[in-house]
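Researcher: Sequence recovery benchmark, item below. Answer with residues only.
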């Protein structure tokens, strides 16, 4: 809320449109406040992009089970926060309550895969493309290459929500004459590997150091906003001034 206020956002201003790039849940202890805030905004003044963590919760509810990655990604924690259940409770009990949770249902029903206007494309990970692995770099991380798809707008948005947008952008997966705003993958990765500003990316709170960059990663055709809030305690907001009224198509 402080970040939005500092960016000049006013929820009562009819000319202000709120955009979330996804992953509103799963890494914090107050999901009900996050959902309560976005649900309080008028439908015609908010654009909610569906992130991979929202998709994880949808999968859990659909399958009535938590898998190993749902513990690592904290999906189960969020479900328990929102339902008042305990992690030790039966998964079916927790997820049945989630299925009928009003806060969650209002939020997820308002989420969309992407939003596009004349200058920008708003996504979570990146636009759909074909990802293939080439090897391992000096830092022990996967090296991936990407091929475009015939029409990214109708591509696989579930897979796209997991992509590292900065890596895809660097491999020339772009939208001509438009800037893509993305979240998902922490901006420090781009500053480190693509802008060569430091080599240390923290994995835990104890690893935070002076070489870590959490400000937006900005280059030709890309603005990556994810600040790895769980470690940095920071939320990046990007303000776009637009004269004409935004028309939100769902």
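Model:
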């Amino acid at each position: 809320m402080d970040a939005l206020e500092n960016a000049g956002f006013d929820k009562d201003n009819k000319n202000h449109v709120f955009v979330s790039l996804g992953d509103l849940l799963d890494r914090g202890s107050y999901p009900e406040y996050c959902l309560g805030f976005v649900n309080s905004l008028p439908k015609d003044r908010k654009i909610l992009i569906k992130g991979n963590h929202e998709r994880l919760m949808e999968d859990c509810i659909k399958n009535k089970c938590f898998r190993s990655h749902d513990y690592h990604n904290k999906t189960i924690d969020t479900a328990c926060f929102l339902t008042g259940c305990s992690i030790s409770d039966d998964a079916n009990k927790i997820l049945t309550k989630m299925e009928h949770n009003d806060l969650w249902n209002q939020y997820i029903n308002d989420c969309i895969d992407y939003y596009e206007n004349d200058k920008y494309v708003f996504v979570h990970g990146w636009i759909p493309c074909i990802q293939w692995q080439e090897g391992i770099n000096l830092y022990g991380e996967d090296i991936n290459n990407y091929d475009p798809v015939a029409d990214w707008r109708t591509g696989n948005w579930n897979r796209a929500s997991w992509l590292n947008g900065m890596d895809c952008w660097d491999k020339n997966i772009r939208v001509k004459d438009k800037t893509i705003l993305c979240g998902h993958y922490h901006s420090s990765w781009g500053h480190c590997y693509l802008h060569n500003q430091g080599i240390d990316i923290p994995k835990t709170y104890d690893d935070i150091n002076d070489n870590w960059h959490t400000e937006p990663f900005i280059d030709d055709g890309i603005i990556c906003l994810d600040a790895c809030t769980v470690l940095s305690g920071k939320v990046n907001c990007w303000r776009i001034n637009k004269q004409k009224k935004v028309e939100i198509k769902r």
